[in-house]
Design a protein that fits this description.
single chain, 543 residues, mainly alpha, 5-stranded mixed sheet, 24 helices, 7 strands
């Protein structure tokens, strides 16, 4: 093997190693917000030996279907109640989605396009973020891209097994988050048939068979909802939890139609420049005299329709856009693979913008170093040193400028992700209250003492606690708690003030200074103002 090629392989291998290490360290980061709720449900599902009926602290749960809880529950069953156990199988399923993205890109365009698509999918900032903060969208995206890959294979070949697997993918997507999982696959097939003027197949009876396959896959959630909530549970699954988020009747109050437009600037980092050029190039081709790529129309068209729906909806969050990332990665991978056809002017423009993005990311790296001062240790120095070495070697041994900037971007993505997952995020998560409260309780408790949760939605306390935590939900729960002795209560400041009206004195009162990670802001991120951003919960004890 020539020396130059050997060095190139080492550089790409180093970038891949950084990314894998970032994934691995993300498995051990604490849970917060929704992921804490999902972990608590998965733990209680495992402990009850009932993998069909979802509950949170004896309350029936209807918000999300089963797939995430089954994947997380499998890890908890094998490894116990740890961050790693909760995350390992959802993470592996999400990474399977990266492989499916490669296969879709390869099937539609070329092996090179598939590799680029997988690279963008697996390193995009939103993907890495939601591997450490597991949401239902983390597993949803894999079902969606599996459906796209297999339905594309079916439309190309007509092979029945691809038809079946395509609708299994749709079913798995729906088993992750409900009917929203079918939106992009449905519109991709519909737009493809319209673009091909294949109107005869739009209403072909075979699609009803596909719907039946998808419903069989999602049937465990439908059975749970019907058994637990009756017809209202089925209505919630298909209507309330979807149209209610669009109208704001059920959840959400945002009227910002550009939310996903400006959030996409960081969602696709470090590949935002490539994504913008790829999407613009695809749309431009629709209006050119040359024959447009039908698959490009179908993929991007389905994503654009989905984005319009998201933008109209009152309920908005960056993770809702996750399932659109993989199909956009495929289109961007094709665009990158075709860079040999670019004009010199276009190539220079793209590279100029991308080097500017690399500079901005390095600036963010510096800000992160400042934020984390005192906890940095040796890691950032080593990572920066190796990054500079990679840049030097990339300019020395990678003659093709487009591959050079891609390699440097890949290494930088892995460098920043690893630094954040090792040196920054774990220390910020130290400010969560559940871990602090449980540490005090486990240290100070006496035999027979019980821990109650009052006025607070920090669900991860149910997951991390060695013994069941009792949640006070009703007046009857409150009265029963008041009759007990050896009672520890974890509550908010408002809850503590209410308790003082009933209980004049406590034997122990411990303030818990905290900040939830889904509510961080600049005041919290700045070490100089962080203390002012913290809330106060209380852990109190009565003999």
């Amino acid at each position: 093997m020539p020396v130059k090629k050997s060095y190139k392989n080492i550089l790409w291998g180093y970038a891949f190693l950084l990314l894998v290490l970032a994934y691995i360290f993300g498995l051990f980061i604490d849970l917060t917000g929704d992921s804490g709720l999902y972990a608590a449900i998965a733990r209680q599902m495992v402990e009850s030996h009932d993998w069909l009926t979802l509950k949170i602290n004896k309350e029936l749960y209807d918000q999300k279907p089963h797939l995430l809880f089954w994947l997380a529950g499998l890890g908890i069953k094998i490894f116990g109640n740890t961050n790693f156990a909760f995350k390992i199988f959802p993470t592996l399923w999400a990474l399977a989605g990266v492989y499916f993205t490669y296969r879709l890109g390869k099937l539609l365009y070329s092996k090179t396009a598939g590799k680029y698509a997988a690279l963008i999918a697996g390193t995009s900032q939103v993907f890495v973020l939601y591997l450490l903060d597991i949401h239902t969208d983390t597993v949803l995206q894999t079902g969606v891209v599996l459906a796209l890959w297999q339905l594309t294979a079916f439309l190309k070949s007509g092979t029945p097994i691809h038809f079946v697997l395509g609708f299994v993918g749709v079913g798995l997507a729906m088993l992750s988050k409900g009917p929203v999982g079918a939106v992009i696959p449905f519109f991709m097939v519909f737009i493809y048939l319209i673009a091909r003027k294949d109107y005869r197949h739009i209403f072909h009876p075979k699609w009803f068979l596909g719907i039946i396959i998808a419903f069989i896959v999602v049937s465990p959630s439908l059975v749970h909802l019907y058994k637990s909530f009756g017809t209202e549970g089925i209505r919630f699954f298909f209507i309330t939890n979807n149209f209610g988020r669009i109208s704001g009747e059920y959840a959400g109050s945002s009227n910002d139609p550009f939310f996903y437009l400006y959030n996409s600037l960081w969602i696709f980092l470090p590949w935002t420049v490539f994504v913008v050029f790829a999407v613009f190039s695809e749309i431009k081709s629709w209006f050119s005299e040359k024959k447009s790529d039908v698959w490009g129309i179908a993929l991007l068209g389905s994503v654009l329709i989905f984005t319009v729906i998201l933008s109209i909806a009152k309920g908005k969050s960056p993770n809702y856009f996750l399932m659109a990332v993989f199909p956009i990665a495929v289109l961007t991978g094709r665009w990158m693979a075709q860079n040999v056809s670019f004009s010199i002017k276009t190539e220079k423009t793209v590279q100029g913008f991308q080097w500017a993005v690399i500079g901005i990311i390095l600036l963010v790296f510096g800000v992160a170093l400042f934020i984390n001062q005192g906890n940095n240790g040796w890691l950032p120095i080593v990572l920066i040193l190796f990054f500079l070495i990679v840049v030097i070697f990339a300019f020395r041994f990678q003659n093709k400028k487009s591959l050079r900037v891609t390699l440097v971007s890949f290494v930088l993505a892995g460098t920043l992700s690893l630094f954040l997952n090792v040196s920054v995020i774990p220390h910020l998560y130290d400010y969560q209250g559940a871990r602090k409260a449980l540490a005090v309780f486990n240290k100070e408790r006496k035999e027979g003492d019980k821990l109650y949760k009052h006025h607070w939605q920090e669900y991860e306390v149910f997951f991390y606690a060695d013994e069941p935590v009792i949640q006070i939900l009703t007046d009857n729960d409150y009265r029963n708690m008041m009759k007990q002795s050896g009672v520890w209560i974890y509550t908010t400041e408002a809850g503590y003030n209410n308790l003082k009206k009933e209980i004049k004195t406590f034997d122990i009162v411990i303030p818990i200074r905290l900040r939830r990670m889904n509510r961080i802001g600049l005041e919290f991120l700045n070490p100089l103002t962080r203390e002012h951003s913290l809330e106060t919960n209380y852990l109190v004890y009565r003999k």
